Inverse folding.
C-alpha cells in the first residue's frame, strides 16, 4: 500500500463518519423540535416587515 491508497481509504472513512454524524443529528433534531417550527420563516419575515413599515428598503 502506498501513500495515495492510505489517503483514499482515510477520506472514505472520514466521509462515512460525517454521513453518520449528519444522520444522527437529523434524527435528534427531528425528535427535539416540531416540524412546524423547523420550516417556519417567521423570524426573517418579521425583520423584513419592520423595514418596510419604517420606509426602509424599497
Amino acid at each position: 500500500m502506498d501513500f495515495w491508497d492510505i489517503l483514499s481509504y482515510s477520506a472514505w472513512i472520514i466521509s462515512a463518519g460525517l454521513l453518520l454524524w449528519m444522520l444522527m443529528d437529523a434524527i435528534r433534531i427531528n425528535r427535539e423540535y416540531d416540524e412546524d417550527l423547523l420550516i417556519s420563516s417567521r423570524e426573517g419575515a418579521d425583520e423584513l416587515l419592520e423595514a418596510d413599515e419604517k420606509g426602509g428598503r424599497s
Summary: The chain is about 80% helix and 0% strand. The radius of gyration is 22 Å. Helices lie at 3-32, 35-39, 42-53. The chain has a mean pLDDT of 83.
